[in-house]
Amino acid sequence: MTTCANGTAYLFSYFINDSRDGLHLAYSYDGLNWTALNGGKSYLLPVVGKDKLMRDPSICQAPDGTFHMVWTSSWTDRIIGYASSRDLIHWSEQRVIPVMMHEPTAHNCWAPELFYNEPSQTYYIFWATTIPGRHKEVATSESEKGLNHRMYYVTTKDFQTFSKTKMFFNPDFSVIDAAIVKDPKNEDLIMVVKNENSNPPEKNLRITRTRNLSKGFPTKVSPSITGNYWAEGPAPLFVGDTLYVYFDKYRDHRYGAVRSLDHGETWEDVSDLVSFPRGIRHGTAFAVDASVVETLIANRNYNPLIPDNLADPSLSKFGDTYYLYATTDLDYGLGRAGTPVVWKSKDFVNWSFEGSHIQGFDWAKGYDWVNDKGEKKTGYFRYWAPGKVIEQNGTYYLYVTFVKPDEKMGTYVMIADRPDGPFRFAEGNGLFAPGVEGVDSPFIVNDIDGEPFIDDDGNGYLFWRRRLAARLSADRLHIEGEPLTMQTARQGYSEGPLMFKRKGIYYYVYTLSGNQNYVNAYMMSRESPLSGFVKPEGNDIFLFSAPENQVWGPGHGNIFYDEKTDEYIFLYLEYGDGGTTRQVYANRMEFNEDGTIKTLVPDMRGVGYLSAPQETRRNLALQADFRASSEKAPRTAVVDIETQPNDPLPEKASVKKYTRTHTYQAAHVGDESNGTRWMAAVTDSSPYITVDLKEMRNVGECQFYFTKPTEGHTWRLEKSVDGKHWQVCAEEKKLQARSPHVAKGIGEARYLRLHILRGDAGMWEWKIYE
């Protein structure tokens, strides 16, 4: 990992979209190239204020290492938000600082900023407020009529008690967005402010300076330091002796910067030299020890687990390898699924697959059939909800749902000599459906979601949809006796069942509801896998949506026991943005002393490494700049989610509306997140994506994690030293279903350009190594 020679790195706090998404962070080592942390996801969602916003987050690190943050919590409140953190990941309870409650006619409290004054060991909090009739009037446009801002402030030493609110900066113009930086050379304090006058419009940034903060800043300010564009949200930062001021070119929907090499005397626009995460809005730039950034990078989100759209996951470990089996989603609805594959990993973080483990099917081919009403239909073979693969005497058993083109379905037993297949039907040699030749293999049960369980005594059991269960035969190919119905405390439609055992207790887990309102409930027994089940004390619904953590509808999943750490991990599908856009998430489970399951609050953090990392090389993509031939328009889902109290009961559930927007920007391929991706516009007939490594590199390997990878891709990779002259350096001419696709031996290049020739025009991640 590259850091500055003096051990300093830089962070930028910011918001995106409508600011309800909360706190975002980016990092840089040079002040020019800024990379989003946490996969571009929020670290903290707002919960205080009338509008529950988190605009303009300003962060200041205390001498004891604590990070303090204030922010705009509403458009019209007379308060600001406050929280603190030791690591920028875990935050204190959010509080309100009522800075203008004594002014009943105050319109707002906008863009609060924090500054620690070393001589007095005091924090200054300053912000912009309009109080009608209070100050010299300025000419305003009709759209901004009544707004005439001035800067106010309070001081504090402990964020518990605060001074009375006083005037901070009162020039002869409407002023907002003040920010202070200390000049390391002469100890001056330089303040950047926005001239907010609107008639005629100024909308530019100016500076003023002082040696003594307690005496305030001169109201005579410099000429504009920004160009012929509207700018706001200044964030000043010294990188060595160079002073940068970053700002929002809000009419241009991009971020810009100016810099001074003489401590604020003269300025040059360097907007074309800086790169920021897409969508960044007003925040704060500040220096930290490089170890802070390294910790944030290491503590990235590990959910989603797999770079693909998957559902109904099951996980087994054989030898030193994890094998994940799942339903492949293609966003075509339940009427069609993707090619089934087995994802493999040595460390639980880096996953790959090579081809399909199920042969003999054309999953993309439609077959005509006629229903009972004489209507002509077209259907597809579908592979759904594979159960946990078990091994017996060197044979691997897979219980999986097949849906035929005529919509008939059942759970079938397949066997293989290896955990990644190829698997074959245990009896017969194929599935028969109208228009398809083959011998009909018998199903083990005439329903979906078959899940096996092998007890300590070697007896086997199968559980499937609608709470049904039966004993397995010794050869694991049939059920014995009549199926029975598992008795559960809650009724209603149920699917995705599973059984596991811990410390002599059997746990039967079943789902309720569906889509964004999936929940997982359970029963407990000390008798057997089929009898003696009772409702646990307390909360029997242990997993449900956590929209505050950006997790919707945690549904059909499976439990993996990690013998090495004695941990139980729940893998489950996450709803995505509707239909069949699901992904696999994983979180650790916890248990009470009596064996009951603690409520599992799902999150984006996930599990992380379960074994030594298999990839230790530095990924150059994390600080590279990506551009694409086109980008698909954002996709927004609006859903009603039933939020559950601590002891959820259906009659207590309240419903709230949530909005989730997925964007498909080129920059997503370099954020090391399996939950963001670039996708080309549907009208783009020649899609490509380009990366600028910022300097010449000897590139040894590229890994491409395409969208819809199970359907196959062909591609061509080019390299360039100047971005103008290109040379082909690698290509895949044959349609290959794998992830990742790998190109090696690229050689010297600054720019790389990947053309997607066949296959889905999108990519989850592009990893680049020397």
Automatic annotation (TrEMBL):
CDD domains on file: GH43_Bt3655-like
Keyword Hydrolase among record annotations: yes
Membrane-spanning intervals of the chain: none
Pfam families per UniProt: F5_F8_type_C, Glyco_hydro_43
Active site: residue positions: D312 (proton acceptor), E495 (proton donor)
Keywords: Glycosidase, Hydrolase
Domain F5/8 type C: from-to ranges: 631-726
Gene3D superfamilies found in the cross-reference section: Galactose-binding domain-like (2.60.120.260), Glycosyl hydrolase domain, family 43 (2.115.10.20)
Residues at the site labelled Important for catalytic activity, responsible for pKa modulation of the active site Glu and correct orientation of both the proton donor and substrate: D449
Pathway noted in the entry: Glycan metabolism; L-arabinan degradation
One annotated GO molecular function: hydrolase activity, hydrolyzing O-glycosyl compounds
GO biological process, one term: carbohydrate metabolic process
Family that this chain belongs to: Belongs to the glycosyl hydrolase 43 family.
Name of the protein in its database record: Glycoside hydrolase
Organism: Bacteroides intestinalis
